[in-house]
Amino acid sequence: MKRSFASILLLTVLTFCGAAQNLSITPVRIPDIEGYHTLKCDFHMHTVFSDGDLWPEFRVKEALSEGLDAIAITDHIEYLPKKAWLGSDRNLSVQIARPVATATGLILIPGAEITRSMPPGHLNAIFVQDANALSKETWRDAVAEARKQGAIIFWNHPGWKGQQPDGVARWYDEHTEILGNGTLWGMEVANHTEWYPQVLAWAREKGLGIMGNSDSHEPISFEFSRRGIAHRPMTLVFVKERSAESIREALLAKRTAVYRENEVIGDSLWLKQIFTHSVAITPGEVATTGRKTVPVTAVNSSDLTYRLERVSPTSVLVFPEELTIPAGQSTVFGVRPSADSLSVNGSVTVVYRVKNMIVAPDRSLEVPLTFRVRIDPK
Amino acid sequence: MKRSFASILLLTVLTFCGAAQNLSITPVRIPDIEGYHTLKCDFHMHTVFSDGDLWPEFRVKEALSEGLDAIAITDHIEYLPKKAWLGSDRNLSVQIARPVATATGLILIPGAEITRSMPPGHLNAIFVQDANALSKETWRDAVAEARKQGAIIFWNHPGWKGQQPDGVARWYDEHTEILGNGTLWGMEVANHTEWYPQVLAWAREKGLGIMGNSDSHEPISFEFSRRGIAHRPMTLVFVKERSAESIREALLAKRTAVYRENEVIGDSLWLKQIFTHSVAITPGEVATTGRKTVPVTAVNSSDLTYRLERVSPTSVLVFPEELTIPAGQSTVFGVRPSADSLSVNGSVTVVYRVKNMIVAPDRSLEVPLTFRVRIDPK
Amino acid sequence: MKRSFASILLLTVLTFCGAAQNLSITPVRIPDIEGYHTLKCDFHMHTVFSDGDLWPEFRVKEALSEGLDAIAITDHIEYLPKKAWLGSDRNLSVQIARPVATATGLILIPGAEITRSMPPGHLNAIFVQDANALSKETWRDAVAEARKQGAIIFWNHPGWKGQQPDGVARWYDEHTEILGNGTLWGMEVANHTEWYPQVLAWAREKGLGIMGNSDSHEPISFEFSRRGIAHRPMTLVFVKERSAESIREALLAKRTAVYRENEVIGDSLWLKQIFTHSVAITPGEVATTGRKTVPVTAVNSSDLTYRLERVSPTSVLVFPEELTIPAGQSTVFGVRPSADSLSVNGSVTVVYRVKNMIVAPDRSLEVPLTFRVRIDPK
Amino acid sequence: MKRSFASILLLTVLTFCGAAQNLSITPVRIPDIEGYHTLKCDFHMHTVFSDGDLWPEFRVKEALSEGLDAIAITDHIEYLPKKAWLGSDRNLSVQIARPVATATGLILIPGAEITRSMPPGHLNAIFVQDANALSKETWRDAVAEARKQGAIIFWNHPGWKGQQPDGVARWYDEHTEILGNGTLWGMEVANHTEWYPQVLAWAREKGLGIMGNSDSHEPISFEFSRRGIAHRPMTLVFVKERSAESIREALLAKRTAVYRENEVIGDSLWLKQIFTHSVAITPGEVATTGRKTVPVTAVNSSDLTYRLERVSPTSVLVFPEELTIPAGQSTVFGVRPSADSLSVNGSVTVVYRVKNMIVAPDRSLEVPLTFRVRIDPK
Computed over its alpha carbons, how large is the radius of gyration of chain A? Predict the structure, then answer.
């Protein structure tokens, strides 16, 4: 690829355009739900302005190409290994990325990572006004400043072995302190290639928000795609409209879930809706004679491959014990009466567990599927 | 996988259900067009009842799994290498496949391949009544019998090196003969991994129908997928409704196109509509100031990756010379005024050539894209 | 593609050649071990001669294309749903496949599946002389006949839900009976997409042989590849030479392991050798100063992506806690002294657990890696 | 991923280690040839220090991960859009990348792009001593300075539409000038996703060297992999040993070829050896009776999928007209006598054209395959 001198004037908006002057975008097919749009967000990543390897504008282009709606750039406050070349203005990375974000419609949220030893570990502050002001002697002062600026603050990667050597997320008095004074909004349940079941349990106990973010330092295509991981972890935010303000409102209302690899993690309220808006099952009626099998089709319009196992025992109808409904595909399965001489006119509900929709450390979403049933004996 | 004795009673319909009792279906995302449904069909394939390697029921299951709407099983009339074990009843393959097709809704069209040396080479007859009656001494008698049964007859793989040693499709007097007496409906422009530009030219000159079929002998997943070819060649049939009768009506009206690898081949009338129903471009208006670039988004909901090159020269707006709109993805590209101090309020049409939509041996589809334009000088 | 009449004379050997007259072969990169060749075998599959969908010759071609060394065709003795068309000669499937196997060098072992309700469930007999003679009133008579013919007999899919409704492999008195009288050689630890940890435990307790087989009914590319499973399950047999006789000798000596998805299952004796013949680590010496990190490279020439976790605690050198060595690739990792002022001249052994090499239901292989070490204080 | 404070001390060498403290390397399987090692090199790429998006150290890590042996970082001399933040020291990008290259063994060659309008267009200078000194008023002065420093100078992307609006590479007097005075070493035949057949013709006519380079501005995984292009274009350099000096010697001797997508471009001397060191054909003798087909196996140990078509007509043996030997796989094909009653004892040579090994704009490599032959009449 070559960039001509002529393009320098257009650089602000054209930077998002690659060699062939265009950028392909892979949509993230997770559906909207009742009353809310489902925004795909990544609230944790780095650039050359701390210890990342990428120029800030590229973070915008990369997120656009992956179908994201919003990102936060969150360079470290306390760790600036490229200071000798780039200085220490902690607002620069967001400032440089801003024009491209505006021109292309990606929502860019200013952030920073308060990077301290454990406890309390690393905390992200997003919706900050002035990241430079977060450079303080103590973590308490940094957090207080972020709060003063109206930031939303969350604990990053609570189970990271680098700070929790036995690999188990451990809750410290310092976390109780910032939870108690209303400073702590929530935690990352998923970070990069890891996820922390214990943290999901805490979130439920303590009423905290949850996120899943990339914490990317290198290109996403280098960190994830080349290892065979189809997408970065994302925070799904259920918003009233597509704007930074609406994301803020939704975060404060704790309307989030986490999308990592082929899993969605979060409250059953949201997960059930994602499932029902992803999968359409037809026909809604099972009409048969004797023990004749009836084909039923489940059409999955999402990027999730749903893996279901039957929870309820066989009643008048025999449903498959296991069902895989591949992403963007359909599945045809057979349903048949459980005995030879049934005569039924009513409805049947079978309950499946969606193994890759996680609502608690050891529990997956259960979805009831109801069919009208009419069986005539042979 | 294991199949229990109990399942024997259910075999007719359950054969379509795999190990986990379900069958996943990959949709073929080629859109319907104005006034017609676009059926995905393969009118040429073999089973163990001639020189294929597969049981007929599996051909139905395989086609379903690949999102096809209709197939014809077309075993050879004259070539039955497994006769010692399976006999020579040429209707059996379709009869065996029929119950599974009925149970699952796949349209199954009875066919046979009249397999003679060149000229006239191999001819397929579909919509036959009794394939056994096609076993005749001469090819003229076989063709006459097929015609008497109301079959639609087409010339298979006219450019196949096995019968056209120099690899060029050659038209013989015998083809003139069956064209002249109304017996020849059309030809395969594409067969297996080959396609024949010359045959497309003939179809246009002589008003013949065109098809693209797999001519599969082994599993499709073995012949195509494992060689990195995403799908078998298909005949797209533009029908009024999803039925065998409607396919017959559409074939007689020559409403077909060919879908092979990442190409569609056929009349511009159909191809233009497939393009416009696949790709949505927003916004429809380019409003800008000075020479500021405006982002335009093309959303491609089809399985075709469209490869466009600009045909019309730059007028008031500069459009990209080349545009790739990947399958199931979007592309953002920049459009900008061609000079500094333009003042425009009107509309602009840019013409692109869609390189992978082929309307003649050396010509691709041209599509005009029209935008409302409003340019204010800076 | 098309098969010409001329080819009929060559059919016996040419059937293995596809459209383009050639067949591509994907090698299975699992290395030979000390003193033995590692043959890749599948001892359980079906054809149209029982309830499969494929002609026997294709099973040979398919196995060749996947890099296998040997297969057994094991059609059901008692279940012949296509009898109306193909008769009930249970030796035919192997007889038909034999010439292609001979011409192409694939080792073809005659087999049959004695298909009874549980107990004892389904039993495979391979190296049979006459499969028809296995058609007996009682399973005991069938098994006795197989034994009389010198067959090797194993219990198929002991944990299959179709016969073990709670999904747990259960051992019956009938199994004790055939174990006691020396009839039972072993069991399938893996079958199709399932594997049974309990069965691995039994094998170790009772000194039985283990296998992993496909139990394929449809094309392998349809059952596995299209679901994203890279290869069928295989039985690795450690032989003295590449022949049917040598496979028999190795089976009787219980020199087997199982290769499924990205896992190898079996005795640590074999697994350790597969690992050490797959992965080369250089340099063998760590020479450094102060706490300077030294890069170490692990080159993996196999198809297995090894997933390692460190077992031994940090001593004088800090090794990574987790290491992934992708199939056919290399991994570079850093090793560094654990403290600032060490002075060492000796050797260090770090022990890793290879998570995807399974030696017992809950235990993975441990491999010690030894390095010469020379650390100079700064 | 998180980077701890502790790691700052180790940054120099540890930067090449990702999240899990290790880096996977995909080897490029293009074989060494007779007397030379085949190094995989990319002599054209950008970083944040001109108009690229990546920190220089990452260019090293990225190249290592893709199995490259050597890179040149060639930031623009005249185009520094990030000057406001990074200054204009044109030696910095190479200086910053140097320690990681040294620690990991990647060969890093200092370079710069003299970026002028056409003619002469963009010229790369590699093996420069001081890139800052290349910042001159005129291109002639810049080139003279590069030459004074002992640089090797080549013309980048001669067919780039940005500078050759009709898309055809055009040779100007200025190129004759630098060719005549010995300044111009050669040209890029391939750049990014383009290649220029005309430039290959020039190289042969004028005795110039050829290269294929990425000209990457963004991550390789973003520019190539996500578009479905398996690897960046590379310059293959045939060296006596793996060192910068040896690369220089080989370049001066014009021992290079180009590897792009699934093609190798260059002199038949090199290409023939790459083919013969990639593909082993067994057996070397065809011994048969009557017209019996004999299977022959071609084992391809390289990353190139070779596409062959037969050039020589059939003599006593019939060889396949087309042969595809997939990367890292084998192909079995059948060879048979051309008539019934031959009696031969001698040798036969069949010539194939390797369609994806390009030796001139319209010509591919031809390789003769010789077999000992013994045919007995039936």
Answer: 24
User: CATH homologous superfamily for A279-376?
Assistant: Immunoglobulins (2.60.40.10)
Residues 92-151 of C with CB under 8 A from B: 92, 96, 115, 117, 122
Q: Which stretches within chain C are classed as H helix?
A: 11-14, 56-65, 83-86, 92-104, 139-148, 173-180, 197-206, 220-223, 244-252, 268-278
Rounded to whole angstroms, the Cα distance separating A55 from D93 reads 14
Angle between helices C56-65 and C92-104 (to 10 degrees): 40
* Whether pLDDT at A359 is above 60: yes
Tell me the nearest-neighbour CA distance from D322 into chain C, angstroms. Answer: 7
Nearest C-alpha in B relative to C63? B222
Size of interface A-B (CB pairs under 8 A): 116
Per-residue b/e over B182-211, b at no fewer than 16 CB within 10 Å? ebbbbbbbbbbbbbbeebbebbeeeebbbb
Contacts with D161 from chain B: Cβ below 8 Å:
321
Residue of C nearest to A162 (CA): C321
- Mean pLDDT to the nearest integer, C38-61: 98
Nearest CA in chain A to D163: A4
pLDDT band at B167 (very low <50, low <70, confident <90, very high): confident
Residues A302, D168: Cα–Cα separation, whole Å: 45
Work out the angle between the directed axes of helices A56-65 and A92-104 (0-180°, nearest 10). Answer: 40
Q: What CATH number does domain B278-376 carry, 2.60.40.10, 3.30.450.40, 3.40.630.10, 3.40.980.10? A: 2.60.40.10
Mean pLDDT of chain A: 93
Give residue C190's identity as a one-letter amino acid code. A
Work out the angle at residue B360's Cα, subtended by the Cα atoms of residues B354 and B365, and round it to the nearest 5 degrees. Answer: 20
Q: In which band, very low, low, confident or very high, does the pLDDT at D21 lie, cut at 50, 70 and 90?
A: low
Spatial CB neighbours of B33, under 8 Å, sequence gap ≥ 6: B238, B270, B273, B274, B277
Q: Write the CATH number of the domain with boundaries A5-266.
A: 3.20.20.140
pLDDT tops 50 at residue C3: no
pLDDT, residue B340, reads 87
| Tokens at D195, concatenated | 């290649």
Note whether B162 contacts C: Cβ–Cβ < 8 A: yes
A103 CA: distance to closest CA in chain C (Å): 39
Do the Cβ atoms of A85 and D79 come within 8 Å? no
Subunit partners of chain A (3 or more CB pairs within 8 A): B, C, D
Domain extent listing, chain D: 7-266, 279-376
Per the CB < 8 A criterion, the answer to whether D250 and D239 are in contact is: yes
Q: What is the CATH number of domain D7-266?
A: 3.20.20.140
**Quick one: pLDDT at residue A282?**
93
Residue D326: both structure tokens together: 């997939």
Number of residues that this document lists for chain C: 378
Nearest to C212 by CA among C10, C42, C33, C51: C42
Continuous H helices in A262-339: 268-278
Least Cα separation, residue D210 to chain A (angstroms): 18
DSSP state of C10: G
CB contact (8 A) between residue D332 and residue C64: yes
pLDDT at D6 over 50: no
The CATH architecture assigned to C274-376 reads Sandwich (2.60)
